[in-house]
Amino acid sequence: MSRQQTRTQTRRAFLTTAAAGTVAAASSGTADAQGTKTKTIKLGGEVMGWQGQQPSSISGKKNPTLKLKAGQKYEVIWTNLDGQPHNFELLDSSGNVIKATEKMSQKGATQSLTFTATPEMVQYRCVVHPTTMVGKVQIQGAKKEATSSNANIPTDAYVFAAAIILAVFSPLLFALLLMRVGPDDGVRPSG
Prior knowledge:
By secondary structure, this protein is an alpha+beta fold.
């Protein structure tokens, strides 16, 4: 192999390695900028309720409200504290299970559930103990769903309804005014 060919191959190898490193660095930077780093939540499960362990904002709290950010990836790691059967489920507002772990009854054993927070998530629970092991999920950064039945009615519909009401009632109001004042521009015949 000539000296020129060796330099060309070395240059190609260097450029290929440098390009691969740049792509890897750029993609890892993008992942961090988008917040795809998984955040950890730790809970202890016992019949009397979920025990908050981590982060510090839920530490020591029974059935703590999980405040999550929409689009953020989370991992819930829970430990069986009492040796009773438990699982961890995320539910929507209709009580449908979005994601869940298997039931586990070995004291000290742990399970984890990884998910991306979505606005549909409103509650977590243990399916075996749904009245004592249950907590709220609050999703931050998500559009709030409408709570009233009128929330999806466009403004134009209200304007149209007001115009219809005015069209129906204005002749009645005019008739009442004429009855009160009289037909001759407010001048009543003296008699």
